[in-house]
Amino acid sequence: MKTTSKRINALLGASAMIFASSTAMAQDMSITVTNLTQGLHFTPILTSAHTSDTQMFMSGEAATAEIQMMAEGGDISGLVSMLGNADANNSENPAAGLLAPGMSTTYTLTNDSANTHLSMVTMILPSNDGFVGLDSWEIPTEAGTYTINLNAYDAGTEANNELVNGGGAPGVLGIPAAPGGDSGTNGMGVTDTESNTMVHIHRGNLGDDDMDGGKSDLNNSIHRWLNPVAKLTITIQ
Amino acid sequence: MLTFSSIKNRVIEHPIKKSNLITITTCLLLLSACGSDNNSVVEPPPPPPEPAEYSYSVTVTNLTYAQPLSPVAIVLHNDSKMWMTGEASSQALEKLAESGDNSDFISDSNALASNSGEDVVIPGLASTIEVSTTDRNATFFTAATMLVNTNDAFTGLTGVDISTMAIDDVKSWNLNVYDSGTEANSEAMGTIPGPADGGIGFDETRNDVDFVALHSGVVSQDDGLSSSILTQAHRFDNPAIKLSITRTK
To answer: Taking CB atoms and an 8 Å limit, are A229 and B185 in contact across chains?
Structure first.
């Protein structure tokens, strides 16, 4: 028995060394994004494996123009272009459109050896500039399944007035859509200022119980959330 | 004993050697020698080994301000989940999440062992539940409890692999709140079973999204839901409980 366990230890040691020496090799990842909410939709998801020097977004820093496009209107084309220039490996829009409440989407991503970090973003609807984010998770070199709960961020680029008016272009005030068809109309607007212009953890939608008027077009029984709002399950082969 | 049976077998297997007096004599001599030598140390055959017992102690601490928890349900089972995000709730889970009654949940057909806490867990307090089994397949763990001042909120975890836990190993988690998706979060008078209302618990009618996901929190009358019986005190955030499991046997 002792000989056997020694042999196993030796084998484990050898495989650990193989793992350690494989840090610079490409990895195949199977990724599942789950929308953990009952009332929010996610716009087309962008997942990217990139170098340690590249970042999609960073808490406490002003959002880039590309993040603003994604967070206010769900448009990931700017980020795709920026990351493409940085030789990142991208997965674009795996759900082929919106990821509905409670739903999951699974896709694969293979990273080049230099792209050691993983990020993911998707806009939250309905919100003014809320998004789900994973910022630069170091991809483990060890095979296995990893689960990460994701929080909702506010891009800090638009006041959270909570009025659904189709405003999705960068700099245009308003929420582009409430895909669940469950928002109200004729709200007065919750606020017209955004005093924290850095990327920060979203304080959540306020909403109200008045579908025709009130402060917000959002419904306070449907469109609020508590973190986490999404789950990322990553299997590394 | 072993010597005896091997000799006996040899005789039976090779009857032709019965004529060989030397062999038989040797066998008999060996037989009697064995018997006398071992007289002092002969022991009755060992009893069949008792099936191993696996025992766990689960402690749930209520981290909320004013959400008592229904008696905590503990289930050990084979590899499966008792709920899934995006999937419809079972009726047993619906009953637990709407009324706090876990009797159907712990008698689930997949349950290999289960138990329930005796009492409601008051905010700030903890409850410990023991569960034991001799079933070697009972290697996955589920716990669930209702936040009783809600329509259908519950917390817990399901399908956690505990097969590698050694005795005295501890695992613990801070856990989020789910919505069973089976009852609209009206927060209206008469719909909430907890002390904030004393309303109806389980109603098999499903008037919500009909899938399990994380809860968006209670709104309360103080925060803009005019028809709510709840106050600011009943609001909660994640995590709502701390749960730890210890293998005790």
So the answer is: no
